[in-house]
């Protein structure tokens, strides 16, 4: 069985709502890790409606950090939790959302993360998130998949740390150039999916959607990894 795990920075859900819905539907994700999800003004209802429009449901609680994990009907949600990461004076509060899902006897602990523009905060939160993921994965005997907006590129410290602990899915099985920001003229790969090394990465790349929708929906492009699970 192949599971599609994606990551998408929603830019606060303040751009073209119809285009955003179409892009998420085009991603065909079984699990979608989102960042900059709505955090005010009927945020629960807005998140739920967006997820439902693409056949998904919001699995994780809370609004901390604007991160959430959306899950499709093919998967069973065993557990979900959200964490506020260590605060840094003067910086936005960051969070980690985690959902443990099961498909054909395989369990995945999937986390959504949005790292800061500050390099020291990024590095600390990357390590903190991995430690939290390892704790949850260990409790449920699940393989880790951590995805999100890293706010730096593959040669920089936090990305290198994540890629040292987990497999950078695009580096393993690239589909396209992987560039994700800015959406209108992508020049940087700052959004990624990282998976436990015992998971088979089939491919990792962008979403086949009209350019007008991709540029109208958000300032980031989504990234989706296909992972082979089970036998």
From TrEMBL:
So where does this one cross the membrane?
A: none
Q: What is this protein called?
A: Endonuclease/exonuclease/phosphatase family protein
InterPro entries from the UniProt entry: Endo/exonu/phosph_ase_sf (IPR036691), Endo/exonuclease/phosphatase (IPR005135), TDP2-like (IPR051547)
**Family annotation (Gene3D superfamilies):** Endonuclease/exonuclease/phosphatase
Which keywords does this Swiss-Prot/TrEMBL entry list? DNA damage, DNA repair, Endonuclease, Hydrolase, Magnesium, Metal-binding, Nuclease
Task: Kindly list the cofactors needed.
Answer: Mn(2+); Mg(2+)
The Endonuclease/exonuclease/phosphatase domain covers which part of the protein?
6-220
Q: Name one Pfam family in it.
A: Exo_endo_phos
Q: Tell me the organism.
A: Nonomuraea insulae
**Any one GO molecular-function label of the UniProt entry:** endonuclease activity
């Amino acid at each position: 069985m192949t599971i599609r795990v994606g990551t998408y920075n929603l830019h606060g859900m303040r751009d073209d709502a119809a285009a955003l819905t179409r892009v998420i539907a085009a991603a065909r994700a079984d699990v979608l890790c989102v960042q900059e999800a709505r955090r005010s003004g009927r945020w629960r209802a807005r998140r739920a409606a967006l997820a439902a429009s693409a056949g998904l449901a919001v699995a994780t609680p809370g609004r901390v950090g604007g991160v959430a994990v959306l899950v499709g009907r093919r998967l069973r949600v065993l557990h979900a939790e959200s964490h506020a990461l260590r605060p840094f004076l003067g910086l936005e509060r960051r969070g980690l959302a985690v959902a443990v899902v099961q498909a054909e006897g395989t369990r995945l602990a999937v986390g959504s993360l949005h790292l800061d523009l500050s390099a020291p905060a990024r590095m600390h939160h990357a390590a903190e998130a991995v430690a939290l993921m390892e704790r949850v994965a260990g409790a449920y005997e699940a393989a880790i998949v951590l995805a999100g907006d890293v706010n730096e590129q593959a040669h920089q410290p936090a990305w290198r740390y994540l890629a040292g602990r987990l497999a950078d899915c695009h580096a393993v099985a690239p589909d396209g150039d992987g560039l994700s920001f800015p959406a209108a003229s992508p020049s940087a790969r700052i959004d990624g999916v990282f998976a436990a090394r015992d998971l088979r990465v089939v491919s990792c790349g962008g979403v086949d959607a009209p350019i007008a929708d991709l540029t109208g929906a958000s300032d980031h492009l989504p990234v989706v990894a296909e992972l082979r699970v089970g036998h």
